[in-house]
Write a structure and sequence with these properties.
The chain has 363 residues and is an all-alpha fold. It has helices at residues 2-17, 23-64, 71-94, 98-122, 129-146, 150-171, 179-192, 195-215, 222-242, 247-270, 276-300, 303-324, 328-362.
Length: 363
Amino acid sequence: MWSYRKRLDHDLVRWRDAGWITPEGESAIRRDLEAGVRTLGLANALAILSAVLIGFAVMSFVAANWQDMPRILRIGMLMAALWASYGFAGMLARRGMTGFAHAAILLGVGIFGGSIMLISQMYHMDGNPADAVLLWAGGALLAGVALRSNPSLAFAMVLVVYWGVTEALRLDRVFWPFLIPWALASAAFYWQRWRPGLHLSGLALTGFIVSLGYRLNDGHAHGLVVAAGLGVMAAALAGERLKPELPALWSGTLNYGLIIALAGLWALQFFEDPTLDVFILLAVLALALLIGAIFWGLKSGNRGALWLGYAGFSVEILAIYGKTIGTLLNTSLFFLVAGLIVSGLAAVAYRLHRQDEPNAATS
């Protein structure tokens, strides 16, 4: 919603300057948008929170009285609560109360998860607890796809990540099966055309790729992570040329590739304990990558790359200083060289800007 509002703000100014809408029309649109954000947005958020609280209340009540109820009554209560939630969601959807319908679906998903735990306890089912989480994620994914509920799909992805992390820690190795439910949830996000969900998928996959550096080759595979990140960035740049009608996809992909590459470079610099010469080389590569991200962010309008570049550059400089504070001469020399390089790049960027101004004026 925030990105939509920013884009609309820009478009309203442009439409007004072009004479397509009147100032009064612009004001009316802004008032209507603000009213919708203040009322419906808040109501939907509160409905989601209430669904979470009610779900916990139902599970707590059933669990507290679990031993005093016959088994058939226990299962009947759980199934009735589950289908009542989905039925209530359908009724709310027909009335146009979409946000409340999503909250009811999320309540049903929560009851489904609680039912798995309670029924397994009732019948003394032994097994890996993570399998129950995966089953819960499958139910959330099915509900999200069948009922077209984005919150349910997001919850499914959270459960998939939790399942993957739990299994990776338990097995103490790379847990490749994580990619299967991740791909299914990501496909559901794409099918829904839900951009926040795709970002959630990107974050999950980014974390998985970064973790490979600590799992493969006895925890020394960070170079592979750097290569993977650079490969993702290269693919995003190629995608922008081949499919320019998908700018959001390529900009997001480039940003996640940048995060992956920087995470690998960070580990190589500060966790692998390299020699000073190798450390300086890695630091120069990291700073060059960050400066390139800033340049690309300014050129293409990719705000994510721009701010990642700014933030990463600042963190990298502080970390370099902390790492080399014991060798002040080398530290000062490094910062002098880095400063001269950045100054030279600034001069080049300024000259390119001056050359582009006449072209922009004549076009």
